[in-house]
Write a structure and sequence with these properties.
The structure holds 2 protein chains of 2 kinds. Chain A is mostly helical. Chain A has a domain of 319 residues: Na+/H+ antiporter like fold (Up-down Bundle). The N terminus of chain B is likely disordered. By secondary structure, chain B is mainly alpha-helical. A two-stranded antiparallel sheet of chain B has the order 1-2. A two-stranded antiparallel sheet of chain B has the order 3-4. The longest helix of chain B has 15 residues. Chain B contains 10 helices and 4 strands. The termini of chain B are close together. Chain B has 2 domains: 60 residues, no CATH class; 76 residues, EF-hand (Recoverin, domain 1, Orthogonal Bundle), CATH 1.10.238. Chain B is elongated, with a radius of gyration of 19 Å. The chains are: A mainly alpha, B mainly alpha. Chains A and B meet through helix 18, helix 21 and helix 22 of A and helix 3, helix 6, helix 7, helix 8 and helix 10 of B.
């Protein structure tokens, strides 16, 4: 799905600010004297610069110090760094013991380490890190990361929990009567925010079906925005002695203003960033800077207007992702991605770590009834909420969520960082602040530890519908992928309906206006070569990214290419390792399905690429033709030179050449990710002569062809072929056609050279059509 | 749903299609207007393969979601086009191009090669294909018959994978 990378992008981008907050709360934002949260390791006592031993204490002139230590000077950054390192070491440590991470979510481990450190600090009576202040929180800290479940779920939860708790408070026996409704609602809004980190890690491990994953992911991201808005509202309201109906109405209105305003600002800044990057082609090195600064600016400006900064940053990132990605260089993209991931990871680590520390070191106020009931209600309301909301939305979905999914969603509602931070920033005017803090911490610890650890076995037990990623058999993997491809095609056929009228309109507007303004060198979207280049780059990067996984590791079976198809082969033994290799190979190399919802198909046309359609049709017919006995296809991989249209004028009689050209076009334009982008390989098991492809050399260098025995025939063929080439087509075309004759020769002595991998980089001569901008007229 | 669509598609045809495929009236008219838009040549067929509207609908009918309440109503005499078996048959036919009701190793290799990127050698792909056949083949003919195909996919939620929600 496309949502996930977008969300990870901005969630991490937003989460970077969390780290800043902890740094700043370590040191106070109001200029207080920072208490030193020394880690449990040795602390260097601050030395005064002029602390050298002085022989004559009252001498007026002191000698030049040769060696000094000035701890206070570096104290702040030093301690920040130490904290960060400590948390990161902890993180490394977990992964050394892999078995632990399988069962215990990382957040639990981090909290535990934090608890330990906190205990250490407590026992040596060090002061805990300064408490967050509201300012700090909202200026530096940002909860990561909108929608049906998010908005409504949070509302439902907050209000439900708040009201139930208020009811409980009325019971005298519990001694919490002084908490009024507003405060209860405020508290409820704090604890209804779910945290994605822990639960999604578990979902990944258990590989639940993608729908569930996406919904939970999206919910976690957006409901933080909602939570903060609610929190602000309720804290404002909580301060007021009397609440009148008009206040409630104003509150609702404010909710919308804040939410929509945030989105608006975000989109605005996204556009500005996109526009800026249009001009950065000469200053590639600072492109990432623009991205980060604009996001942060969006955040700050919306804080200025007291509207939802989270929504702002989320929308900013979404907008930027779409437009900016086309403008910035590949390197900048990678940089941004990595920096964001790194910062996000650090901040996650730090948050949970500090949660542990702070737990031990703050004063708690304990009230059995309130806390237990909070736990109970949180659970109950979440379950109810999911149930109700799913019932409402299921009729509108193709794949409805069954009860197991819903259970997964409800149980996966772990609280975490946001609740933690928000609890700390409660204004002191609330009488029972400590109680709230304690209750929040209890809930977080409970959900993270208990639910976090138990969710995995539970999900496996109830057998939530899994993804097919880890299926047992190769068969299933292949067939399922085929079915997905089929579905993508059929969906194209059916097109979109009038429900997407506005989306269509927006997309037209987008193409005509926005993209022209915001994107540099805006070529038409259907520029196949550009797309092809991008796809192959991404493909290659993905492959390179996975260090483990050796794609060239062939299974330990001797290749059994035989001449006759039906000859009785001894059953090959496939070892488990071979199977694993096979799964690896398949999962890495099978083309992914392009996104399901075709973004902007008009009602009356297929998605706007006629070329891939050509390709599909041609491929289909050539497959059928190639199934005729004896027609081999040699492996080809080359791109169509500039100017050559797809419509080949080759009469069908010379069917090999026609196939040739079809293959060419097919190969050159794998169209979208998923379409059949590969040259047809030899269908039969028989050996087929494989030719190395040096397609971009000139015709005279025909002898570059490795197969000397084929050399003569190739030459002959290529000469004949050249008469068929378009005059505009440069020489490479001829060479391409050279290997074709191989198709027609049957029963040749198999001479299997190692297959030439088309993906190998060619001489990047200017003749390489990939590097040239093709000027070609797509013929309809 | 332009007026053009309804004039070219007669009511009795719609009824027939409805019975055969199970689409609703409005869905059929919508799909017809889609068909006509795709049919640039205006000769009543989609190009190349000469698919007429009936064929178009028949194919699409495979992808209707399987409805549970269909079981409650009078059980259809013939299997509806969107039953699990028929969906699987559709997928099977994507492999089996020569229509001999078996997926041979070559056909499998064809499809595999199409689905897979450049970086896989012939040997690797060949052994993947061999493994595929080995897993599925029960009667030892080195081909996958439709029964074997169905058996292999028995745990897979085909009804969900091969369904589109047609709006109406």
């Amino acid at each position: 799905s496309v949502i996930k990378p977008i969300f990870s992008f901005f969630e991490r981008a937003a989460a970077l600010l969390i780290i800043c907050t902890f740094l700043s709360f370590l040191y106070g934002s109001r200029g207080e004297v920072p208490p030193k949260p020394t880690p449990g390791i040795t602390v260097v006592p601050p030395l005064k610069p002029n602390n050298e031993p002085q022989a004559y204490p009252d001498a007026e002139k002191s000698n030049l110090p040769v060696f000094t230590m000035d701890y206070p000077r570096i104290q702040i950054p030093f301690e920040i760094t130490l904290w960060m390192l400590l948390a990161s070491f902890a993180k490394i440590g977990f992964h050394v013991y892999h078995k632990i991470t399988v069962w215990v979510p990382e957040s639990c481990l981090l909290i535990s380490i934090g608890l330990i450190v906190g205990a250490i600090m407590h026992s040596v009576h060090e002061e805990p890190p300064a408490v967050l202040t509201s300012n700090v929180f909202f200026l530096y800290m940002l909860p990561p990361i909108v929608f049906w479940y998010a908005v409504m779920g949070t509302l439902w939860n907050s209000i439900g929990i708040g009201i139930s708790l208020f009811t409980i408070c009325q019971i005298e026996a519990f001694g919490v009567q002084d908490i009024n409704l507003q405060e209860n609602l405020l508290f409820a809004s704090i604890i209804s925010a779910v945290d994605p980190v822990a639960v999604l890690g578990v979902f990944e491990d258990v590989s639940v079906n993608e729908q569930l994953y996406i919904v939970v992911f999206g919910e976690c991201l957006f409901n933080d925005a909602v939570t903060v808005v609610l929190y602000n509202m309720f804290s404002f309201v909580a301060d007021m002695p009397v609440v009148e109906p008009v206040d409630v109405f104003l509150g609702v209105a404010r909710f919308f203003v804040v939410g929509l305003g945030g989105m608006g600002f975000g989109i605005l800044f996204g556009f500005v960033a996109a526009f800026t990057t249009r001009f950065t082609s000469k200053v590639r090195e600072i492109e990432p800077l623009f991205i980060f600064m604009f996001s942060y600016l969006a955040y700050l400006v919306s804080e200025l207007f007291a509207i939802s900064s989270i929504m702002a940053i989320v929308c900013c990132a979404l907008t930027m992702k779409y437009y900016v990605e086309e403008n910035v260089s590949q390197r900048s993209c990678t940089t941004i991605r990595h920096v964001v991931k790194m910062l996000g990871s650090i901040s996650e680590t730090l948050i949970f770590f500090f949660l542990g520390v702070v737990t031990i070191t703050t004063e708690h106020e304990w009230n059995w009834a309130y806390i237990l009931f909070t736990l109970l209600f949180a659970f109950v309301w979440r379950g109810l909420g999911i149930l109700v909301l799913t019932q409402i939305i299921n009729p509108f979905r193709t794949i409805s969520f069954n009860l197991k999914d819903q259970f997964g969603m409800a149980y996966g509602g772990l609280r975490g960082a946001i609740s933690f931070a928000l609890a700390f920033t409660l204004p002191d005017t609330i009488g029972r602040k400590q109680l709230f803090v304690t209750a929040t911490i209890v809930i977080i610890l409970f959900t993270v530890f208990l639910q976090g650890i138990s969710i995995r076995p539970l999900i496996e037990f109830i057998n939530v519908r899994r993804t097919n990623r880890n299926v047992d058999t190769i068969n299933v993997e292949i067939h399922c992928r085929l079915m997905e491809h089929t579905m993508a095609g059929i969906e194209d056929l059916c097109g979109q309906w009038s429900h997407f009228y506005w989306k269509d309109k927006f997309m037209k507007f987008n193409n005509r206006v926005l993209r022209r303004i915001l994107i540099r060198d805006n070529r038409a979207e259907s520029s196949i070569v550009a797309l092809y280049k991008k796809l192959e780059l991404q493909n290659a990067m993905e492959i390179l990214d996975t260090v483990s996984g050796d794609i060239s590791a062939a299974p330990s079976i001797v290749s059994l290419h035989e001449d006759k198809k039906e000859s009785a082969k001894p059953k090959k033994k496939f070892f488990a390792e071979d199977l694993k290799n096979m799964h690896n190979i398949l999962s890495k190399n099978m083309y992914k399905i392009r996104q399901r919802t075709v973004a902007y198909t008009s009602k009356y046309a297929l998605p706007n690429d006629s070329q891939p359609r050509e390709i599909l049709i041609r491929r289909h017919s050539s497959i059928r033709r190639s199934l005729r006995p004896g027609s081999f296809q040699s492996q080809k991989y080359f791109s169509l030179p500039a100017g050559q249209g797809l419509e080949s004028k080759f009469p069908p009689v010379r069917h090999s050449y026609a196939d040739e050209h079809e293959t060419m076009s097919e190969v050159a334009y794998p169209a979208r990710h998923s379409r059949f982008g590969q040259p047809k390989r030899s269908a039969s098991g028989a050996m087929m002569p494989l030719h190395r492809l040096d397609t971009l050399k000139e015709v005279p260098s025909v002898d570059v062809l490795n197969e000397s025995e084929k050399g003569s025939t190739s030459r002959g063929v290529s000469r004949t072929n050249s008469s068929y080439s378009d005059s505009r087509v440069p020489a490479p075309n001829d060479r391409r056609n050279a290997p074709t004759e191989a198709e027609e020769e049957q029963g040749e002595q198999p001479s299997s050279p190692p297959p030439a991998w088309a993906a190998e980089p060619r001489d990047s001569t200017p003749q390489n059509p990939l590097l040239r901008r093709p000027k070609w007229n797509p013929k309809k | 749903m332009g007026s053009r669509a309804s004039t070219l598609l007669r009511e009795e045809e719609i009824e027939e299609i409805k019975k055969e495929t199970g689409f609703s009236h409005s869905q059929i008219t919508r799909l017809y207007s889609r068909f006509t838009s795709l049919d640039k040549g205006e000769n009543g067929t989609l190009r190349e393969d000469q698919v007429n509207f009936r064929g178009f609908m028949r194919t699409l009918a495979h992808f209707r979601p399987v409805e549970d309440n269909e079981k409650n109503k009078n059980p259809p005499t013939t299997e509806p086009l969107n039953s699990r078996t028929n969906k699987l048959l559709f997928a099977f036919r994507l492999y089996d191009l020569d229509r001999d009701d078996k997926i041979s190793r070559d056909e499998l290799l064809q499809v595999l090669r199409m689905m897979v990127g450049v970086n896989i050698s012939d040997e690797q792909l060949g052994s993947i294909a061999d493994r595929t056949i080995q897993e599925a083949d029960q009667n030892g003919d080195n081909c996958i018959s439709f029964q074997e195909f169905m058996k292999v996919l028995e745990k897979v939620d085909v009804e969900q994978k091969m369904s589109i929600r047609f709006l109406h």
